[in-house]
Design goal:
It is built from 15 helices and 17 strands. It is an alpha/beta fold and 376 residues long. The strands form five sheets. Strands 4-15-14-13-12 form a five-stranded parallel beta sheet. Strand 7 and strand 8 form a beta hairpin. Helix 1 packs across helix 14, helix 10 packs parallel to helix 14 and helix 10 packs antiparallel against helix 15. The longest helix is centred in the last third of the chain and has 27 residues. The N and C termini lie far apart (42 Å).
Length: 376
């Protein structure tokens, strides 16, 4: 996998780059729709490609391991063959999902023991097994197994957690070296920077991962309960340390404003369930602000869902019709809202890239951020 840093914006750390994988190129900054169980909820592959214009999607190790099981995915020829998406795929290691299980998981030096949220069955993830599972899934970019430290963790816990993540990373690297891709395309391992909200831990973590030659680096353990100010501060600590010539991936973030602020600080890659999850609940993101389509004010608004939108659904359906679908719990309503939100997120990063290349990013971002959080 090759990354070319093409341009850095004036008066900003914002970058435009190009990431080459065996399943295609990715222009950064980029947002990656989340396909937890191998599919982006409610969205066909054709819509992802042609309408939303996604360049890369995510799968999740934890969920795919439990259902349908990696044996079935391997029998299909990998996740690309199984779900019909022929572009790049990134898989999360499952660290965040295991973290979110709370009382039904237990961490040790060996790995993470947990109970399935589906049937209560018991399982063990180790750094080695997580690499093997991601080999079976066949994603182009795979993540190291880590402990996702809670946002409110005290210093001693965060330090201990970081030490565990660092030791697990060494084992992930060793397992990568011992194994080979199963489907004839390259897989790249991204280490993850942890350290909670403590600058010295984040600095140490960034230096540690930077010492390990990798095709890219991830920043994890943010947007997990800490304040936005702390999140931005930790990005400011980490990014100057991470190799400039490699892509930087901020995991699980976030709102459109979060994404623009992180781009401004030098982040290249993003993912979040917010566009689809919030969409299913009637929240629409637009360049003028946020629409709660459930509100009574939209009941007889027959204007397009988003006159400024880039998706087919934005022009084809009205706000009144979409509101009717959402409040009636019609499946199509969730699909329309999700498709709109994903197309908006992809527009946002594409436009950010255009502004970076034109050396107008900072001014554009500052103006747009004032609008994005407004309730319409």
């Amino acid at each position: 996998m090759d990354f070319t840093l093409q341009h850095q914006a004036v008066n900003s750390q914002a970058r435009a780059g190009r990431l080459e994988t065996d399943h295609g190129a990715i222009e950064t900054p980029i947002f990656m729709p989340v396909g937890t169980a191998g599919s982006v909820k409610g969205i066909h592959v054709k819509e992802l490609k042609d309408d939303i214009q996604a360049q890369i999607i995510l799968g999740n190790t934890y969920h795919l391991y439990l259902r349908p099981g990696t044996e079935i995915i391997q029998e299909a020829g990998g996740l690309h063959k199984f779900n019909g998406w022929d572009g790049p795929i990134l898989t999360d290691s499952g660290g965040f999902q295991v973290f979110s299980l709370g009382d039904i998981r237990k961490l040790s030096e060996e790995g993470a023991k947990f109970q399935s949220h589906i049937d209560g069955s018991r399982h063990l993830f180790t750094p080695e097994s997580v690499i093997d599972i991601q080999r079976q899934i066949g994603a182009d970019i795979i993540m190291a197994f880590d402990e996702c430290t809670p946002g409110d963790a005290d210093y001693d816990y965060a330090k201990k957690s970081l030490g565990l993540t660092q030791r697990w990373l060494e084992r992930c690297v060793n397992q990568m070296e011992k194994t080979s891709p199963l489907y004839g395309h390259q897989q790249s391992l991204f280490p993850i920077v942890q350290g909670a909200v403590y600058p010295d831990l984040r600095e140490a973590a960034a230096k540690h991962v930077s010492s390990i030659p990798s095709d890219g680096y991830a920043i994890g353990g943010l947007s997990v309960g800490e304040s936005e100010e702390d999140m931005y501060a930790m990005i400011d600590v980490v990014n100057p340390i991470l190799p400039k010539e490699k892509p930087r991936y901020l995991m699980g973030v976030g709102t459109p404003i979060n994404i623009l602020e992180a781009i401004d600080r030098g982040v290249d890659m993003f993912d979040c369930v917010m566009p689809t999850r919030n969409g299913r609940n009637g929240m629409l993101f637009t360049k003028k602000g946020i629409i709660n389509i459930k509100n009574r004010k939209w009941a007889n608004d027959f204007s397009p869902v988003d006159p400024d939108g880039t998706s087919f659904v934005d022009q084809h359906y009205s706000k009144a019709f979409l509101r009717h679908l959402i409040v009636s719990n019609e499946m199509l309503g969730a699909q329309i809202a999700s498709q709109h939100n994903l197309a908006f997120y992809l527009w946002l990063v594409k436009e950010a890239r255009r502004q970076i290349l034109a050396n107008t990013f900072k001014e554009w971002k500052e103006e747009l951020v004032q609008k994005l959080g407004r309730r319409l």
